Amino acid sequence: MQTPDETNATPATGIAARDWATAAADPQYRAAVVDLLGALAYGELAAFERLAEDAKLAPTLADKAELAKMASAEFGHFERLRDRLAEVGEEPTAAMEPFAAALDGFHRQTAPSDWLEGLVKAYVGDSIASDFYREVAARLDSDTRSLVLAVLDDTGHASFAVEKVRAAIEAEPRVGGRLALWARRLMGEALSQAQRVVAERDALSTMLVGGVADGFDLAEVGRMFTRITEAHTKRMSALGLAS
Amino acid sequence: MQTPDETNATPATGIAARDWATAAADPQYRAAVVDLLGALAYGELAAFERLAEDAKLAPTLADKAELAKMASAEFGHFERLRDRLAEVGEEPTAAMEPFAAALDGFHRQTAPSDWLEGLVKAYVGDSIASDFYREVAARLDSDTRSLVLAVLDDTGHASFAVEKVRAAIEAEPRVGGRLALWARRLMGEALSQAQRVVAERDALSTMLVGGVADGFDLAEVGRMFTRITEAHTKRMSALGLAS
């Protein structure tokens, strides 16, 4: 039998060992979590909007229903995050607004021009979001972590996209080159907007670099972005989109 | 104590007294229900799309979330109706496609040009749909009726719109005239598309006029449209949109 400390790379010490009531006594930690929930909530709402929009590109009603299902799931996530903000006494809109420009910017820069681009975006977005939720969960108090993991548990609705993209590339290999470029552009734009957020939001960035309680440093946030990028690259290769 | 026959205007006889397995032995009734489920499913999917689109017109994030919530609920209804089609051995896409032109036509002709038009459309659409679900439920076998009533139970998410539209008219009474015209146009377009469907879909129309088992006649379908129109007019008056 392993002890919990042996099974987890990050043992539950510092923030991770505290509940919200204890952790939020530190105003900087509290501000960081409000930022995080605001960013995630707006991200889910924006994802809902874009997926609903991109569903219009679907060639069949069944395809449209798949993307609409993802959109609907994102809306459910948005509601949980927004309700949590209200529960801790924050005005959800005020918490979300600082992140609107970056997320809207990302979606404006990456509007898919056809169904396959829409599918790749749905899959890439879903995967990056999952990776980020998983990374950030370890830096949170137990109550916020439970919420983040619950939302994470309900992601992964994009797996239908993998099969369809793979089939399209097999049918016409030339498509692969175009979609590989597209996937790189998606990741590049995501990183560029993430860096904008990190630069602008002190409390959130400080939490991400571990300035509040745990032992992360600035290099660690860079490593997190690197891990997410590497996971993305692996997924794209598996999909036949080696770049 | 009242007996069920005394509490309901329409006693459970004919189709209403049968379950799906018994009722669907009649191929014309079966075709009518497949038509109905296909029309309702496509209607819910189209409503999801349009509400998600119209949510972009929202002046605040909270308003956007309200309309997005409706969209998400419509998607849930779509899933139940689609799953029921699959359950009775029908291909959902094939069942929905005959109704795409009429429903897409309705939405194309009634794209709101601003947030208030979007709110009125959400409320009018939700209310007309509820009325239609309630009307048609009485003409269905017990299993199909349960599904239709379950979906109906989950509608009514548009009540938030009432308060907002009323406040806008109070703030600027001139708005009322414009929205009253808009509401009439919505109802006119809905009736015109409904008549197109009635003209094109024999099995469904026959069921609606009672040709399968119960005692409805052609005048009855006209009366149903009249009842729905009257209910709409009353709601619009209550909203300050007397036309």
Q: What is the average of the pLDDT values of chain A? A: 87
At the first level of CATH, the class of chain A is Mainly Alpha
The CATH superfamily of chain A turns out to be: Ferritin, core subunit, four-helix bundle
* Oligomer classification: homodimer
Runs of chain A in which pLDDT lies below 50 for 5 or more consecutive residues are 1-10, 212-216
Give, in order, the helices and strands of chain A.
Answer: HHHHHHHHHHHH
Radius of gyration of chain A: 18 Å
What distance separates the N and C termini of chain A?
Answer: 43 Å
Tell me about the largest β-sheet of chain A: none
Total beta strand runs of chain A: 0
The tally of structural domains of chain A comes to: 1
CATH architecture of chain A: Up-down Bundle
| Outline of chain A | globular
Structural class of chain A: mainly alpha
> How much β-strand is present in the residues of chain A?
under 5%
Per the CATH scheme, the topology name of chain A is: Ferritin
Percentage of helical residues of chain A? Answer: over 70%
Biggest interface, residues from each chain: A-B, 27 and 27 residues
| Number of helical segments with 4 or more residues of chain A | 12
